[in-house]
Specification:
By secondary structure, this protein is mainly alpha-helical. It folds into two domains: 12-131, no CATH class; 134-229. It contains ten helices and two strands. The protein has a two-stranded antiparallel ribbon. The longest helix is centred in the middle third of the chain and has 38 residues, at 133-170.
Length: 240
């Protein structure tokens, strides 16, 4: 993080939830919520007073709201003091005390306006790499992604077994050669894959590309088999 309290290009957090993020809106919301809760935990542990915590809580809520309403992924929050008082349920004097308590934890470019009711703050110092929040968010996203992929693999595997049972019950000679080939591919996939199995969660966490490669193989088998066994079902264009 730069000396002015803003993010550097190599900071982790803006790559995850800032304007350089490529995550879906659902993933972004989850990470923003996790980050906000972590900020409250850390600032409380660091001695932020009760009034300062109330003000910070509302600023974090407004921060997340502006991201939804304006598609704004910055870490700046702007609000009039009177509006913030109403949201916090604080008197003017209590609000000023809360702002004073919060001041060391955030970036304020214009201190005079900050204490005069025209509040604009940068939350970047709360998300600095040295706080550990970037590594925590990265771990959370990776873990969630691996869990989702492994669940999808389990469901696809169950569907594949169901397709094979359906084909066996029919006992038709049509497409038999293709069916035999797909059964062989399925068995080979089960023998060779590692990362799609929940027992290998840690290995999958460290090798997302390998996880995606295994899932792509599984999808090809699933879609090709479904197109062969289920009338009217089509395989993807990239499948055999």
């Amino acid at each position: 993080m730069a000396e002015n309290g803003r993010f550097d290009d190599d900071d982790v957090v803006p790559q995850l939830i800032g304007d350089r993020s490529h995550l879906s809106s659902t993933a972004l919301i989850e990470l923003e919520q996790a980050a906000a809760l972590d900020v409250l935990r850390r600032t409380t542990a660091a001695g932020l007073g009760e009034l300062g915590s109330q003000v910070l809580l509302m600023l974090l809520v407004l921060w997340q709201r502006q991201r939804r309403e304006r598609s704004d992924r910055s870490f700046v929050v702007a609000v009039m003091g009177a509006e913030l008082e109403d949201l916090c349920g604080l008197s003017e004097a209590a609000m000023l005390e809360g702002l004073q308590q919060l001041r060391p934890f955030i970036r304020v470019d214009d201190t005079e306006l900050y204490f005069d009711g025209d509040i604009e703050v940068g939350l970047e110092p709360l998300f600095a790499d040295e706080t550990g929040v970037g590594a925590q968010l990265d771990r959370f996203w990776r873990a969630s992604h691996v869990q989702m992929m492994q669940r999808a693999a389990r469901e696809a595997g169950e569907a594949i077994e169901s397709f094979f049972r359906l084909a066996d019950r029919r006992g038709s000679a049509q497409g038999l050669e293709r069916l035999v080939a797909l059964r062989l591919q399925w068995r080979r996939h089960l023998e060779q894959r590692r990362l799609l199995d929940a027992l290998n969660f840690t290995a999958a966490l460290a090798d997302l590309q390998g996880l995606h490669d295994e899932l792509a193989t599984l999808e090809r088998i699933h879609d090709s088999l479904g197109a062969l066994v289920v009338p009217g079902r089509r395989a993807r264009d990239d499948l055999c």
